[in-house]
Amino acid sequence: MLGRFPALAGADLEVRAGEIVLLAGANGAGKTTLLRLCAGLLPLRSGYAEVLGVDLAVDRRAMRRSLALVGHETFCYDDLTVHENIRFATRAAGRSTADADVALERLALGRVARVTHGRLSQGQRRRVSLAIALARDPRLLLLDEPHAGLDDQGRSVLDEVVRAAPSEGRTVLLASHELDVARQVATREIRIVAGRVRGVPAGSDGPASRAEVRV
Amino acid sequence: MRFWRDAMLVAGKDLRIERRSRVALAQILPFGGIVVVMFAFALDADRTSLPVAAPGLFWAAVFLAALLAIGRSFAVEEANTARDGLRLSGLDGAAIFIGKAVAIAVELFLLEVVLGAAVIVLYGVTVSGVLVLVCSAVAATIGLAATGTVYGVLATGLRARDTLVPLLVLPAVTPVMLGGSRAFAAALQGSSSDAWPWVQLLVAFSVLSLAAGTMAFGPLLEEA
Residue A65 and residue B90: Cβ atoms within 8 Å? Predict the structure, then answer.
């Protein structure tokens, strides 16, 4: 809700396992709200939403260990190093510290592993956020403007991660303003206009796999 | 077992942040020391009534410094909306509560040791009834940390958080102030038997605070 007005109204979409779905829309259209709703960070006021088989009206915590959100903020602690931040999030998700090391290397963060998060550039913070998400090995990866602030190398790494997602058993829901870049990795595009979904709302013509997100 | 592992993970994270940032060492501890000195100036410069008032002054100084420690514990969750990261982490809310309370309690124990030494030296206090002093300090600190953690998360995300936390915490921990001061006073006067009922009050308060926090913290964090 934004004041008395619902940020999402009449949103109707289905995302199937292995899809990379691009959410496009103007500022304030409801992209971030939809991603935060899928992550269980926002309560469902009305309607129906199911993420990874969990009805969000009943429980919006049960699926959190199986998803990751890369948002506008990094969710990191400025006084911890990059490695400590990734390791904390990885262990909190019940995974081993080896997963943290693998993600650190995959995002090419080895050089800044011992630098505190507060001293990183915007682009480096984005990479840390993505490394944390990957270290958790999520089934559903929610990306909110992931290209923002990234340099060419960072974008290249990000695109590689997103493209590899289906083969790694991941589904991706990606919100972006940089449509030209995002369309290169997305398998389907959905437009959100004033909280309503336009385009292809349900994965009826997509792969015949289970629905990871149903709103 | 996973519960305690998660709680210690959160406690370790908070203590590592404090060790790295040195806020507790460079700001909270000196603040407590200044309060102890200010009380000495305000009450009696020639040490006649200071030993009598020392238990109450000690706990008042601890409480004021504890407010900073509690505020700090939740301020680190505000930056980069780290609290959303905690919510998404999959950690159990009760484990997060225990972890944050343990970290605050460890900081307060260290603070109490230093402030206790300052009170002994500056106020001219003769120490007796060490067992009562330790037991009441442990129980009071757990109660203070647990209550502060609950009210800290309650005020998280509010613009008036900095002023709201003292308003909420200080009345709620009145039993700790009362019990801690009375138990210390009785112990320092050499009548430990009079102190144990106050220690029992502190233990009961700590148990209730821990129980309430374990149940309430998760839902409060979700609404923050």
Answer: yes
